């Protein structure tokens, strides 16, 4: 029996993790803690909200008193920590909220866990879900290994790198049993349309310009979100204590190529003439300090835990496009209000 606290479970990846754990582990109580920021959306987990082994709690990981009370009240036995500010562009315009949530929030959780678990530390796991961006930016060659030195380049990645360091410091200093995973770019249903793929899908659908940063030559390694959730399950249950696992899709794409692929898929779906959506591609000012290439070597998780991606990329992209087109209400709800202001400011739309 575990009382598992999952933070950020109303967000993109967190919602897929919560769903997987609620459905798969009926003997666990899953407590989903989320502040419901602009990125958190309870519609993402509507299908499991009435499950007997599930509870949603709205709250802030930075509120130390509240977090300590939650650990005590719910007798939290383990943590999978995903709550974060997650968008690189927002970290450039508002770095302090990234320091607050990603660094201070993570330390707040670590502190509560070490305090509440100190009598029997070996019965508890604190698992931090992190990103490949902590390793910095690659040239044309090479891959990120678990041993690659940290070299974060954006306020977002610096805040995630910092939180990873704090997790390791709590393992070393307070003997907390920790695990960390560093994953590549996720895609799939429920991703907030500030990130590349849902933003492009939404704009193609609405015949709006497709803002490609710089020349679109930057490279990302894409993984279907459900495969990331499976990796998190495997690492939580089978990963070695104190270790890091890199998770990736073995699937590198230049931004411009992935946008063109999307245009082709959506022309077919929307019954548009071939090449129609690609006319919307617009090259815009590059992101400041834009990392050139991310590529994960995921051999360790494959060799040690037997995990590998289950979906071919084209199949995953088709599923993703279908999902967004079949859920116009979801898109409409998350693109109203605050998001519109953010979009106008970032892309200087009149
Ligand atoms: P997301 O932005 O979609 O979701 C983040 C969630 O955290 C939201 O539900 C939000 O409400 C919640 N949250 C934010 N601040 C909070 C606070 N102070 N207290 C409680 N909850 C708060 O993010 P995502 O893309 O699902 O990423 C989840 C995690 O995975 C993050 O830690 C991110 O760094 C990491 N990650 C993401 C990717 C990716 O491609 N999206 C890749 C690798 C790692
Ligand atoms: O409008 C856009 N145009 C564009 O060219 C946007 C939003 C992005 N881009 C480019 C920038 C990146 O090279 O596309 C690439 C992907 O951008 P994002 O979707 O913003 O993701 P990225 O910056 O790579 O970071 C993502 O992967 C690692 C997630 O947002 C992080 O949370 C995760 O840790």
Largest sheet: 7 strands, parallel
Structural class: alpha/beta
Bin the strand percentage: 15-25%
Q: Strand arrangement, largest sheet? A: 3-2-1-4-5-6-10
Head-to-tail CA distance between termini: 54 Å
| Ligands and ions found | nicotinamide-adenine-dinucleotide, thymidine-5'-diphospho-beta-D-xylose
What is the residue-mean pLDDT, rounded to a whole number? 96
Q: CATH H level of the domain at 2-187 and 222-250 and 291-313: which superfamily? A: NAD(P)-binding Rossmann-like Domain
The SSE order reads EHEEHEHHEHEEHEEHEEHEHHHH
Question: What's the CATH topology label of the domain at 2-187 and 222-250 and 291-313?
Answer: Rossmann fold
Total helices: the number is: 12
Task: Flag low-confidence runs.
Answer: none
* CATH architectural grouping of the domain at 2-187 and 222-250 and 291-313: 3-Layer(aba) Sandwich
Please tally the β strands and state the result.
12
What would you call the shape?
Answer: globular
Q: Please report the first level of CATH classification, the CATH class of the domain at 2-187 and 222-250 and 291-313.
A: Alpha Beta
Computed CA radius of gyration, to the nearest angstrom:
20 Å
Binned, the helix content reads 40-55%
What keywords describe this structure?
12 strands, 43% helix, Rossmann fold, alpha/beta, binds nicotinamide-adenine-dinucleotide, 12 helices, binds thymidine-5'-diphospho-beta-D-xylose, 350 residues, 7-stranded parallel β-sheet
Describe it.
The chain is of the alpha/beta class and 350 residues long. Helices cover 43% and strands 17% of the residues. The chain is built from 12 helices and 12 strands. The chain has helices spanning 12-24, 64-73, 88-93, 95-117, 155-174, 196-205, 225-238, 255-270, 299-305, 313-326, 328-334, 338-347, and strands at 2-7, 28-34, 54-58, 78-81, 125-131, 178-183, 185-187, 210-213, 219-224, 244-247, 252-254, 281-284. A 7-stranded parallel β-sheet has the order 3-2-1-4-5-6-10, sandwiched between helices. A 3-stranded mixed β-sheet has the order 7-9-11. It is globular. It starts with a strand and ends with a helix. The mean pLDDT is 96. The structure holds nicotinamide-adenine-dinucleotide and thymidine-5'-diphospho-beta-D-xylose. The site of thymidine-5'-diphospho-beta-D-xylose has 16 residues, from helix 6 and strand 8.
